[in-house]
Specification:
The complex is a heterotrimer of chains A (252), B (316) and C (389).
Chain A (H helix, E strand, L loop, with lengths): L2 E12 L2 E12 L3 E5 L6 H8 L9 E9 L2 E2 L7 H7 E4 L10 H12 L6 H13 L3 H4 L12 H14 L4 E5 L7 H14 L4 E5 L3 H7 L2 E6 L2 E7 H6 L4 H7 L5
Parallel strand pairs in A: 3-8, 3-9, 6-7, 7-8
Antiparallel strand pairs in A: 1-2, 1-4, 4-5, 9-10
Chain B lengths: L15 H42 L2 H6 L3 E2 L6 E2 L2 H32 L2 H16 L2 H22 L9 H26 L2 H9 L4 H30 L2 H6 L17 H9 L8 H35 L5
Antiparallel strand pairs in B: 1-2
Helix pairs in contact in B: 1-11, 3-6, 3-8, 4-6, 5-6, 6-8, 7-8, 8-11, 10-11
Chain C lengths: L11 H38 L4 E11 L1 H5 L15 H13 L6 E8 L2 H8 L7 H12 L3 E5 L2 H4 L12 H32 L4 H15 L2 H15 L7 H26 L2 H9 L4 H29 L3 H5 L20 H9 L5 H30 L5
Antiparallel strand pairs in C: 1-2, 1-3
Helix pairs in contact in C: 1-15, 7-10, 7-12, 7-14, 8-10, 9-10, 10-12, 11-12, 12-15, 14-15
């Protein structure tokens, strides 16, 4: 098992509020890692550190290292734009751009110079939509606005758009909490397919979802990483009492 | 001992006088509300009425298409094309100044500026909006126009002291807050999730603004432009003080030309009889102004509504 | 910069980052340009207007006697007659009338200098005969020419004699006009707002009212002047140039602002207050009048002050209803001919004498000061009464 993301002693402050306390974690390549924990425990904050989205918030102070491909992404000579190219993110609320379905997907790859307008771009769009399991449903209406799709379809569109940039890692912040059960099922199946090519880290407040899709699970509580192990161990045989309390519903 | 008989009714009916009082007040409120409606129609009809008097005397077609405007002469002609042209040219110059500065200032304030900078800068732009237009007019006539003449002399061009450029530039300055204020509100209302989505794909802030935020805000920005144009067309003091009086059909912005509002003022401030065509021409011009600004305003409201629906924004 | 071992360094990004920097630069420079207009403009006004705070005075000998009453010019030495203000000379007979003890005396007094002398003393372009110029230089050496604070600007009305012109009559005119404006637009505006917020249902009538208010706000101000001319003056026969007509015209213009801000103020009162009132068995009018309105009042006041400030700066519609006559004496009623401050500024700006330039600029500074004060009061009120629900 290769480590894709090596988190070392990560600390984060929102102003004076110490939100993440010395997190140490190895995220493995081509596995799905779930981050669980009660509201406000820091799992989403931690997720956003991986693609440096927290840099966009004022008053945020980050110490520690996140090492990907032997480079600490918080080094001074690292371009955070290129980090986000390699590490994609899908958000809780589907947020397609006010453009056509085609444009939603083609937009970033063209900007990054991955493809040029024309045949290679068309192929990339098709490939991404197929990988996201959306191609059959939209292949005849690529020029329709992205916002004309249903919630579940929009989320898959966002996934397709993330894949089109050819990242190594896909981060997902509660990707199905705003969707209906059928769409959720489709996306969970998608995740299991995608992990063959990508490393996936998903934040979820739904423990059953973690149990269904994740290979590894990390339990966060009030800014600390309490326990991190194979999913089965966490849910069947947790080593920490706090973990057991959370799993059994005693709080959160 | 008389015991007061228990009232058989569970709830009393409304006191008659209170009800009447309530109704009277309510009708007074309704009457007050209709005043705004009456005013709009009052403006429309009073202008329309006098304009029709004018068109009884002078040709309507020639008014819209004729190129000679000479009111005082025996064979007076009232072709408004040079006046319309002057109005549009000065408005276009104003928009050239106000649009880029207004939109980019709005972009800076809503996307780049920290909240402390923004809270200090926004009121400054509001000050520009609060300056009376007569003051802008003085500034245009006494400072800007001579400056332009001097600069043009220096580069070998000849500029009038009433150049369209002078009034256009100052009018543009006056309109900057109209554009920037509404654009700022609209751009800020674009949901943050769109920005986050774009940035997470590895795009720079500038690319995000250009390709995601501004297009999303475009209906609102178009509305802001239309409002700016409407304000420029109706502006009076700057042009009365700094632009010319004579209708001059030309594209040379260094020459003097006149606008609809200037001619309205000129027609009504003289000693001519009220029913003379020269005086009534003010109402014909006023009608044209009313119709055009009304149309612009309606289109602008439509665009703002489109934006509000798209993003379910209520704060505009 | 470690390029080889850095998987997160992408040379193609250099161009994009440079482009992004340029974009940000455009944005910030637009803002800077807009603000520098403001700075340039204010400093220009200050530079042109502040000199008007001082006027030149000359110390001369005045003889008060019978001859002076018949021919005032003779009261002053011939060589000085052209350099003192004509207005001062005209006042001599009246001075004797008011103060009979002056009769048959000679006094050394400081009196106002002619406007061209004032321009010369201040270093501007002037039109003086060489004779007079030499006389002034001579007097300066004797210390008989001084710049004193120009209180005349605030105590006098308009005048055809530049050095004697002041803004008082226009100020009074503005006050009277705005009084009319407020007394008409405030009740109508607030009542309309109350109706729309508290009583109106979502029907065609309400929609029509709201559309109309919207349109009213966007109509060019000069068209309100046409309305005033056609209806208030021609149809109703109200006196032209009066504060009454001007005030009515401005009232119609101010309605939309008052309505919009009053509505916002009413809307900000939480519904729980109303529910509590109804729960106690009060009628709708009672709830609105006694409970909602007092809470919304600060917001309504703020909106009214802002509307007033806007009305104070309006010129175009008032020109159309005739308020640009020459008004030397302050009006005493709303039916007398009057002028307002912005109109006075407009008139002075059109005067040929150079001395009026600084008067105009000073008038502008006065107007701006009043506006800034009004707006500051409005903001202060808003902050002070801003209740966090």
């Amino acid at each position: 098992m290769k480590t894709k993301i090596d988190v070392q002693n990560l600390n984060l402050w929102y102003g004076k509020n110490h939100a993440l306390h010395g997190i140490n974690l190895d995220i493995y390549k081509n596995k799905i890692t779930a981050l669980i924990g009660p509201s406000g425990c820091g799992k989403s904050t931690f997720l956003r550190c991986i693609n440096r989205m927290n840099d966009l918030i004022n008053n945020v102070n980050i110490k520690g290292q996140i090492i990907i491909d032997e480079k600490n992404i918080y080094d001074k000579d690292v371009d955070e734009v290129s980090v986000r190219k390699r590490i994609g993110m899908v958000f809780q609320q589907p947020n397609p751009f006010p453009k056509s379905i085609y444009e939603n997907i083609a937009y970033a790859p063209i900007k990054h110079g991955i493809v040029k307008k024309g045949k290679s771009c068309d192929e990339l769009v098709e490939k991404s939509l197929i990988s996201a399991g959306l191609w059959d449903e939209v292949k005849d209406k690529l020029q329709e606005p992205g916002t004309s799709l249903s919630g579940g379809q929009q989320q898959r569109l966002c996934i397709a758009r993330t894949i089109a940039v050819e990242p190594d890692v896909i981060l997902m912040d509660e990707p199905t909490s705003a969707l209906d059960p059928i769409s959720t099922e489709k996306i969970e199946a998608l995740m299991l397919e995608l992990k063959k090519k990508y490393t996936i880290v998903i934040v979820t407040h739904n423990m059953q979802q973690a149990a269904r899709v994740a290979d590894y699970t990390a339990f966060f509580h009030m800014g600390d990483l309490i326990e991190y192990d194979e999913t089965e161990t966490i849910f069947v045989n947790p080593k920490q009492k706090k973990t057991e309390d959370y799993i059994t519903g005693r709080f959160g | 001992m008389k015991i007061k008989q228990q009232s058989k009714v569970a709830f009393e009916s409304k006191n008659k006088t209170t009800q009447v009082k309530e109704d009277v007040i309510k009708y007074m409120l309704i009457a007050a509300s209709t005043i705004s409606v009456l005013t709009t129609f009052g403006i429309l009809f009073s202008i329309l009425f006098e304009a029709i008097e004018f068109f009884k005397l002078k040709s309507f077609i020639y008014f819209l298409t004729g190129t000679e405007w000479s009111p005082g002469v025996e064979n007076s002609k009232f072709g408004a094309v040079p006046i319309f042209a002057g109005t549009f040219i000065i408005t276009i110059i104003a928009m050239f100044v106000a649009l880029p500065i207004g939109i980019f200032s709005a972009v800076y304030m809503s996307e780049y500026a920290s909240s402390s900078v923004r809270s200090k800068v926004k009121p400054l732009l509001e000050i520009l909006a609060g300056i009376p237009t007569v003051v802008y007019g003085f500034f245009a006539a006494i400072t800007v126009a001579p400056l332009i003449v001097k600069v043009c002399e220096f580069i070998g061009l000849e500029a009038s002291f009433n150049s369209a450029l002078a009034s256009g530039i100052v009018m543009g300055i006056m309109i900057i807050p109209v554009i920037s204020s509404l654009s700022d509100d609209v751009i800020s209302s674009v949901p943050d999730s769109l920005r986050k989505g774009s940035l997470a794909l590895g795009l720079t802030m500038a690319e995000t603004i250009k390709s995601v935020v501004l297009p999303a805000a475009s209906p609102g920005i178009i509305a802001a432009c239309l409002l700016g144009v409407s304000k420029a067309l109706g502006e009076t003091m700057i042009v009365v003080m700094a632009a010319g009086l004579r209708p001059n059909l030309t594209f040379n912005i260094l020459e003097d030309m006149t606008t609809v509002t200037v001619r309205i003022v000129d027609a009504l401030v003289g000693d001519q009889a009220f029913n003379s065509p020269a005086t009534l021409s003010a109402f014909a011009l006023g009608l044209a102004l009313f119709v055009v600004t009304l149309i612009l305003n309606i289109i602008s409201v439509y665009f703002i509504r489109k934006f509000k629906e798209k993003y379910k924004v209520n704060s505009l | 910069m470690k390029n080889k071992n850095n998987p997160f360094y992408d040379p193609s990004l250099k161009k994009r980052h440079a482009s992004a920097k340029r974009f940000k630069f455009f944005a910030i420079s637009s803002l800077v340009i807009a603000i520098s207009f403001l700075v340039f403009f204010i400093s220009d006004m200050l530079q042109k207007g502040l000199p008007a705070l001082q006027q030149s005075y000359i110390q001369v000998e005045i003889s008060y006697n019978q001859k002076s009453i018949d021919s005032p010019r003779s009261a002053i030495d011939r060589s000085l007659r052209r350099v003192v203000s004509r207005a001062e000379i005209r006042q001599i007979p009246r001075k004797i009338e008011n103060n009979p003890q002056l009769m048959n005396t000679t006094k050394f007094e400081w009196i106002l200098a002619d406007d061209q002398v004032d321009q010369y003393v201040k270093g501007n372009y002037y039109k003086l005969k060489n004779k007079d110029k030499k006389k002034i230089d001579e007097l300066k050496k004797q210390g008989r020419v001084e710049l004193k604070f120009n209180s005349i600007f605030f105590t006098n009305g308009d005048s055809k004699i530049p050095e004697f012109a002041g803004i008082k009559s226009a100020l009074i005119g503005s006050i009277l006009t705005l009084l009319v404006t407020i007394m008409v637009s405030f009740p109508i505006g607030v009542m309309t707002a109350i109706y729309l917020e508290e009583f109106a249902q979502d029907n065609k009538f309400t929609q029509m009212i709201e559309v109309n208010i919207n349109n009213l706000a966007a109509i060019p101000s000069i068209l309100f002047g046409l309305l005033g001319l056609a209806i208030f003056i021609n149809l109703f026969g109200l006196p032209r140039s009066s504060a009454l007509v001007g005030g009515l015209t401005l009232a119609l213009m101010t309605l939309p602002i008052i309505i919009v801000t009053a509505r916002a103020a009413l809307r900000s009162v939480p519904d729980s207050i109303r529910q509590a009132g109804y729960g106690l068995g009060l009628t709708k009018i009672q709830v609105v009048r006694d409970h909602v309105l007092p809470l919304a009042f600060p917001g309504i006041m703020t909106g009214t002050i802002i509307g007033l400030a806007q009305a104070m700066g309006e010129t175009a519609p008032l020109i159309i209803v005739g308020m640009i006559a020459f008004i030397p004496d302050s009006p005493t009623s709303i039916t007398e001919a009057a002028t307002v401050m912005p109109a006075q500024i407009f008139t002075w700006a059109g005067m040929p004498e150079r001395a009026y330039i600084e008067k105009t600029a000073m008038g502008i500074l006065t107007l701006l000061t009043v506006l800034i004060s009004l707006n500051t009061i409005a903001v202060y009120l808003r902050k002070k009464f801003e209740t966090k629900w």
